Amino acid sequence: MELLKRILYILFYPGLLYCFVGGLVLAGIDRKLLARMQKRVGPPIWQPFYDFFKLLGKETIVPRNAAKRAFLAAPVIGLISLITVSLFIPVFKFSPFSTYADLIVVIYLLTIPAVALIVGGSASGSPYAGVGISREMVAIISYELPMVISLLAIAKKVGLELNNGIMTFSLSQIVEYQAQNGPLFTKLSMIPAFIAMLLVIPCKVGSLPFDIAEAEIEICEGPLVEYSGAPLAIFKLNHAIKMLVMTSLFVTLFLSGSGTGILAVDAILQFILSIVVVFFSITILKAITARLRVEQTLRFYWTYPTALALLSLILVYFGL
Question: What is the predicted pLDDT for the residue at 160?
Answer without folding.
Answer: 85
